[in-house]
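I am still getting used to backbone structure tokens and would like to learn alongside you. Please make up or recall a protein chain and show it to me in full. Would you write everything just below, so we can both look at the same thing?
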Amino acid sequence: MKSSLCILNNSIKLLFASPSKNALSVENWASSPLPEDAVLGGVIVNDSPVRTALSKLRGEFGNALNKVNLVLSSSSVLTKQFSAPKLPEKKLLKLIENEFADITEGRGELLYDYIPIPDGAYGPSTVLAVAVEKEYIGSYISLFQELGIKLGSIDISLSSLLQLSSCSRIGGKTCIMAVLDANSLCAALFVNGVFRFFNHNRLIEERGTEASAREIARHISSIIQFNTSEKTGREISHVYFGGLLREERGVKVASDDFVLGPLTDFIKSELEIEAHEFPSFEEIRLSSRSERRSFPLGEYVYCAGNLLGR
């Protein structure tokens, strides 16, 4: 059994699962809320509540929380997709460093990595290059070391979405995966199942309101327009959402008589496109010990994608 943990803007998500080839058996999951001022844009600005939440999870799960696979969702992570010749790793990383040269001025020391994307937008040699400040990664490493939690790996949220794109109910589609997290919206475009575009937007309007629904619709519309301008020859058929609030699912909140209705219905009406929460996947199943529970994949998208195929 392996564990994946993601520190979001408003909560910490933890997932335990047993991965096998192209499949995942979900064993357990937990979430710990964070106050608004703890994490902003994936950057820890007040580590006290984060430490408290992580310590609580460590106390609950004990030694099971070991060699954690950490997922980072942050606008601080830079990504760029391009075609790269077949090179030894050191030379490829140097090439990636050069690719980022024009957008990294003024930043601290950077770490570089990449994800191969077979048959990507730039042909069979497409890579998704990643750059992130060493200090940013170091802050997470130090935090987990101080809490006595060993890290098995550190990955980015987009990598999780790339893993999920191969699942049977999404694989091969031209679609958008959109994950909401407090005041941020991360969205990835896939054309015929192949990754093409990713952006990270800050949301202004209060979530769960009509103004917020219209703001989210505008961001989704801009990706639809991008797909058209790129002349991919494919129309976007679906938008899949993760991280929806109760209000955005159309669930009435006890303290509020106003109910907007499901955000997915609003997107369907405004953009004339199919919109749903992340569906259940054949590849992600509950173990026999957890099958009586209902796994909310939309809330654990990054953790599930992170463990899929490990």
Observations:
- The longest helix spans residues 210-229.
- The CA atoms of residues 21 and 233 lie 32 Å apart.
- The mean pLDDT is 91.
